Structure formats: C-alpha cells, structure tokens
Amino acid sequence: MTDDITIYKQIYPSQCIKLAELGYRSVLNVRPDAEVESQPNSGEFADATEQANLSYQHLPFDDERLSMLTVEQFADLYHALPKPILMFCGTGARAKLLYQSALMQGLL
To answer: Measured between alpha carbons, how far is 89 from 102 in angstroms, rounded to an integer?
Structure first.
C-alpha cells in the first residue's frame, strides 16, 4: 500500500524470519484467533516474531463489527509500530478495510 505498510493475506509463523530479512520491522495481525480451525494463533505469532526480532501486535476484529474504536486503535498502532509494517488477515480484505477506514477518517 505504501512504504510504511503492506497488507497481505494469511501468513504463517515460519515466515517471520523471512519477513525480517525482507526489511519488515513489525507484524500486525487483525484476524481473530480460531476463525478457522487450521490457522495459527496469536501466541504462535508472538513467539515467532520475537525470535525474528519483529514487533508484534494483535488487533482482532470481525469485518461486520468494525467500530470507530477499532479504527482509532489501529491508527494508534500504525503510528507507534516500527515501520515498515506487514498487516494481515485471512484474505487481506479486512486489513485493507481497516487501513482505508483510518485513512478516510484522517487518522493516518
């Protein structure tokens, strides 16, 4: 999306070292745990990002329940996290919606 943030579909903890090698400094997971049975959980990402020396935050939300509070929390994380950030969800659509909502509100 920009030099500061990339929006992507589901990633896996095993990819965190490669993300760090590619220059990412933070990972933001907006997918709720246990959304589907086979997805890795936030704890697995916390461990993998720590091993890769990446900052990690989990801001889970359901796209049917996107609130202004969630948009504001995202904007706060966006400003606080080391850049560039890789933000992901299942398909990338929810992450893109969150980013665009914050942008449209003038929060980024």
So the answer is: 16
CA distance 108 to 104: 8
Q: Are 13 and 71 a contacting pair, CB within 8 Å?
A: no
Report field, pTM of the whole predicted structure over 0.90: yes
CATH topology for 5-104 is Protein-Tyrosine Phosphatase; Chain A (3.90.190)
The count of other CB atoms within 10 Å of the CB of residue 51 is 12
CA-CA distance, 98 to 89, in Å (whole number)?
11
Crossing angle for the helix pair 93-104 and 68-80, to the nearest 10 degrees: 90
Nearest to 39 by CA among 88, 98, 96, 95: 88
67-107 pLDDT, tens digit each: 999 999 999 999 999 999 999 999 999 999 999 999 999 99
State whether residue 87 is helix, strand or coil.
Answer: strand
Domain ranges of the chain: 5-104
